[in-house]
Amino acid sequence: MSFSTSGPLHPVILDDIRGAQKMLSGIARTTPMEGSRHLSQLVGAPVHLKCENLQRTGSFKLRGAYVRIAGLSPEERAAGVVAASAGNHAQGVALASSLLGVRSTVFMPMGAPLPKVAATREYGAEVKLHGQVIDETLAAAQEYAHDTGAVFIHPFDHPDIIAGQGTVGLEILEQCPEVRTIVIGVGGGGLVAGIAVAVKALRPDVKLVGVQAEGSAAYPPSLSAGHPVSIDAPTTMADGIKVGRPGDVPFKIIGDLVDEVRTVSEDALSSALLLCLERAKLVVEPAGASPVAALLSEPRSFKGPVVALLSGGNVDPLLMQRILRHGMAAAGRYLSLRVRLTDRPGALAALLGSLSVVDANVLDVSHVRTDPRLGLTEVEVELQLETKGPEHCEQVATALREAGYTVIS
After folding, report:
1. Sign of the four-CA dihedral 120, 125, 129, 135
2. Which residues contact 325 (CB under 8 A, 6 or more apart)?
3. Closest CA to 195 of 239, 153, 161
4. Residue 60: what are its φ and ψ, rounded to 5°?
5. Which residue of 162, 240, 316, 362 is most buried, as measured by CB atoms within 10 A?
6. How far apart are CA 308 and CA 100, in angstroms?
7. In the prediction, which pLDDT does 371 show?
């Protein structure tokens, strides 16, 4: 698919992205590209990780926010800017505004992770906590813009935002000129739209694959319908791509230039985050790990060399703890089961001895004695075990059954 660098085909053209790249010189980092031996073996071709999780503020969002705010008139700058975000966009707007000397106000949901709230304040924004869900927060920010004259900075639905994000695409082509496939997480669509404009203008042969979480996948039905479609109550751990409706501006670009949009499960997302941490030594948030989740789900369906974009690394430590445990379970390295045994001295020690024989590491043990399903002399023991993979999980359960225990998984 070819793409002209001039003409009214799209609201963003290659020259806009090149201009944004010059504007961002000395502001946004040229983030590194790291090879992944493990993913390369799975895919059967070289796989590289574009590490936007190492960008200033921890995500790509600074790029678009800076270009958007830098393009404001002196009068607009004097009025200040306002944004609504649960995290990455908030921090991008806050830092961009500080660098440009513009007053910024950021509305965040009441339940936003405290580290993200603190970081947004430290980057110079006034933070207002409002609403339980992002839609309520967004409405409050737009009302504030109407009442004060502050310029609302949308996270993805503006040409300047898209142009700024598209600079990632230029970097990918410079760092990996032999690339054949680029895999990108998709929320509202600003990032993938910008990358698509840049890449398809210069390398129309490169395949672009967007990735959404199954519970928050508004693009597949929207592309089928030919217009943006809203989905009710999007749900996913990947809050960075948890968007219920595609942006109007990026939608046409994506429909014209992005080759495919796939979906991934929550299990795949948590497994991908775990892989990034263990194998690549990179802290990546669930949304940023979505391209890796796609590679893990269908590794042989990608033509290499492949670049997977790690779009952000801002993950709350408590969420990270839960996700890692979920990822270990999805990878067959964490087994939770209940075992019924006779309630007598030495019974638990015998059970733990059986687990030791099969080399299962016990993380936690709890007793249940009050369940009406239990006999008078029975107790149920709930076990949390660290295992070595799916086959080992099955070996542990089989060994316990062969030892005479009733196993309830």
Report:
1. negative
2. 334
3. 161
4. -70, -15
5. 162
6. 31
7. 67
Residue 311 known to be catalytic: yes
Q: Residue 335 to residues 176, 196, 357, 399: CA-CA distances in angstroms?
A: 40, 42, 16, 14
Classify residue 303 by its DSSP letter.
P
With both helix axes pointing from N to C terminus, report the angle between 248-257 and 190-202 in degrees, rounded to the nearest 10.
40
What is the chain's percent helix, strand, coil content, to nearest 5? Answer: 45, 20, 35
Q: 60: Cβ–Cβ under 8 A, 6 or more apart, which residues?
A: 52, 165, 168, 191, 311, 312
DSSP 85: -
Q: Cα(130)–Cα(15) distance, rounded to whole angstroms? A: 39
Q: What is the pLDDT of residue 393?
A: 84
Provide the terminal-to-terminal Cα distance of the chain, rounded to the nearest Å: 51
Give the three-class secondary structure for 47: strand
Mean pLDDT of 222-235: 92
Of 36, 40, 50, 61, the catalytic one is: 61
Global pTM reads 0.84
Which tokens hold the place of 189?
Answer: 């669509």
User: How far is it, in rounded angstroms, from Cα 343 to Cα 233?
Assistant: 46
Q: Residues 187-225: pLDDT tens digits?
A: 999 999 999 999 999 999 999 999 999 999 999 999 999
Report the C-alpha gap between 251 and 196 in whole angstroms. 12
